[in-house]
Backbone:
């Protein structure tokens, strides 16, 4: 499970570079809308193949519509922010959301407790994020301030959505929850893009199409579906803490693909991020052996922890 969560976080890290590339040929509305539309069609296909009900009860349907609208707002903010800041800074700021999740879950999900160990791990990882963010080589101060603030707002909204998903996924199949979110947001964003930007704003090229497909199918449908499933079945803070891997991968992707700068301070930030993840997801056991958060659940069932 540890390897799966790290892999998913790494995929999300490359997502920011893909989004940045897609914005070279599409407006924020068009890019985010088509990305979610392709991802949504894939998730609907999943629901049909595995015979999952796409139409839940009316009271849940209204909640799913509301989550889709919030999802659209979140993506509009993310894509608008990336028009004013770099891919690496975007990945760092957006993935500060585990702190919002930890704070909100304290009040809305009593079973997901923020222990002292989790808090220490989250703070270590967040300190690493701050180090990367404060790197002078990648900072343009006022030139990126607007995008940075928008991305922080998007991170907080994403934290709210993690809590909402945790609750509704107990009643609706995780893949269906993800399908509703992305399809409602896609219809909203594409409609707005067509009206406000017009078809003349579309300038496709091979890099733009490939970036759009990556962010839609791999960074979209795959991530949405698996993430909602994990949030349903595991501790929400432990799952969200792996998002701190994403800014590390996002920074590396920015360096390799977009020629963004690298420094010792960024390296130190990466080390702290990794340390924070280790602290959050490993619990000491008597006798000196330690188990990960997910392994502890299995161990307790077997009567060995």
Residues:
């Amino acid at each position: 499970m540890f390897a799966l969560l790290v892999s998913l976080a790494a995929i999300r890290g490359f997502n920011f570079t893909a989004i940045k590339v897609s914005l070279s040929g599409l407006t924020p509305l068009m890019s985010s809308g088509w990305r979610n539309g392709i991802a949504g069609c894939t998730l609907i296909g999943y629901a049909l193949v595995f015979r999952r009900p796409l139409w839940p009860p009316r009271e849940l349907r209204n909640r799913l519509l509301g989550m889709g609208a919030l999802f659209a707002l979140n993506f509009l903010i993310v894509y608008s922010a990336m028009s004013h800041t770099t891919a690496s800074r975007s990945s760092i700021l957006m993935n500060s959301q585990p702190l919002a999740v930890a704070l909100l879950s304290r009040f809305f999900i009593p079973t997901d407790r923020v222990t002292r160990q989790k808090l220490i791990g989250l703070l270590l990882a967040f300190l690493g994020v701050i180090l990367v963010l404060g790197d002078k080589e990648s900072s343009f101060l006022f030139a990126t301030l607007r995008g940075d603030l928008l991305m922080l707002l998007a991170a907080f909204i994403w934290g709210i959505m993690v809590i909402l998903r945790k609750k509704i996924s107990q009643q609706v199949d995780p893949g269906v929850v993800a399908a509703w979110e992305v399809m409602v947001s896609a219809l909203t964003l594409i409609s707005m893009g067509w009206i406000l930007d017009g078809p003349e704003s579309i300038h496709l090229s091979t890099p733009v199409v490939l970036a759009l497909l990556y962010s839609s199918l791999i960074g979209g449908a795959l991530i949405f579906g698996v993430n909602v499933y994990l949030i349903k079945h595991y501790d929400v803070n432990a799952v969200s803490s792996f998002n701190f891997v994403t800014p590390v991968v996002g920074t590396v992707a920015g360096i390799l693909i977009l020629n963004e700068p690298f420094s010792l301070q960024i390296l130190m930030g990466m080390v702290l991020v990794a340390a924070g993840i280790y602290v959050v997801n490993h619990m000491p056991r008597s006798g000196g052996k330690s188990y990960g958060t997910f392994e502890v659940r299995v161990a307790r069932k077997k009567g060995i922890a």
Summary: The longest strand covers residues 282-284. The chain has a mean pLDDT of 79. The first helix runs from residue 2 to 22. The chain has one domain: 2-301.
